[in-house]
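Preliminary data (for renewal application), zinc ion complex.
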Amino acid sequence: MQQSQLKPILAFTFLLSACQADVYTTDIKEYYFTVEPRSEQNTQLFSVFFRKFNRQLAQHLGARQMRFLQLTTSKTSDTSSIYVGDKSQYRRVELDGQEYQSVGKGRWERKSHIYSYGGLLLRRQKIIKNIYRMKLYFNSEYLYEWHNSNDYLTRQRAYTLFLHELGHGMLMQHHPDPDDVMYYRIDSARKDIPSFMARVVKFLQR
Ligand SMILES: [Zn+2]
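Predicted structure:
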């Protein structure tokens, strides 16, 4: 290669390396939840569910106690959220040739914040902060009808619904076993809590 050809290549390589950035990524999973609408009734109900879930997860891990899911009143754009709405906000779904009113849903979201430092000739640093949070939705009519029932199994179903949507929030799909929390129907009397908690732990360790 001749000298005259080498110069532009060197200049190009220099520019390229100056434009490249060191990338640092941090992942933050957000398990602080706000409830909407913020009413005494909703706050109480989800405090009960959170306590029960935290206790069961701690038992599964062999730990004494744990405050993993927490309710908070300080809402930031990054908190996870629970929405309780009436029937009109939920579409009808078809399962096994029958139409049902949807009772809830859950999903996991990622929001990325990208920060860049330095200039063209300084080597730049790019910091990516990924915030993962959950959005859970509940149909208030079913949730409260079940939770306030005199029948123990019906009351249990309200908590199972909570676990089920939390499961979707943790990226779990439906499971074919009727006793599984992630079965598409939640009316089985004996839900297998340990196998559900094992999947929660797996999700947390991702
Ligand atoms: Zn489901």
